[in-house]
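Render this sequence as a predicted structure.
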Amino acid sequence: MSGQRATVEAMGVAVAAGVPVLLWGAPGTGKTSAIRAMADAAGWPCETVIAAIREPSDFSGLPVVIGGVVHFAPPRWAERLAEAGRGLLFLDEISTAPPAVQAALLRVVLERVVGDLDLPERVVVVAAANPPEQAADGWDLSAPLANRFCHLDWEVDAATFAQGLVGGFPTATIPELADGWDAEPLAQAQGLVAAFVTVRPGLACALPGDAARAGRGWPSPRTWDMAARLLAAAEVTGASTDALNALLAGALGPGTGTEFLLWRREMDLPDPEAVLADPQRFVVPERGDRAYAALSAVAAAVAAQPTVERWHAGWEVVARVGRSAPDVAAVAARTLARCRPPAAVAPPEVKLFAPMLKEAGLL
């Protein structure tokens, strides 16, 4: 798959998951056209805001005194998105926005708040930027703003361009995700992230030392949470390996994203549903990180569908690890304790974790 096609697919998955995404590419390579085409194909409204020609008050709201109280009035483009209930907020030329405007964008990108107006959850922020050295009066993105995006590289090769001229350029499609799509997949992805950062604690938060790298993707608690959501969405939508690689590298940086995906592939974890169907056949992994990830996946599966039978099976699996490594099983035990079905009677395996659960207020 070409780099551009992988980026197009990754952008659609990120938007479907509600993760802010930023396309980086040289001027004149069709970034704006690709984003507009994605919105048109999905039937979503798209409001384009060029950050370089805006003031901070265009995002933080214009102060207006009404009845002796100061209100921060949102601009008309934000009101139109709120009225539509869904759509894309397209921040174009974001690398030309001065530091004061970048600071005003922080709440807009992360919380979708413009002035005193909360944009609906189905409004997703998408941005485009030229590298600072190629932009008109360009700036490096500040680390706090960069850390709110999944960064995707927009590459154009001659073959893709020639094919696009003749047969049409690839258009990103936004996959339809049902309500509650992330209940079990997201919990399992978060379990994988938790297991990985336990093994590699130095990557839980690793701010790059130079401004150029800090203006792209880098690992932090926020981007690890973003990566888990992107991983879950990629699994649900059946995204390609190239698109998944682009998403994880975009959220965490290429080095950390690649290392996490290689570690995940090496884990070769069992299917949690198969484990719950026959707990006796579960083989306790020798490696602590693999055991942690397997238990997290099982506990997440139970939490997503907490029947009495599945809850008891989950405790049986967790206890098999807890007898030899209680610290590895502790997180999964707390997850099971929180999702106890109303009619369930605590099985004997719970006694193994009783002190820890009492201390946490779960028993």
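Summary. The two ends are 52 Å apart (CA to CA). Residues 268-359 form one domain.
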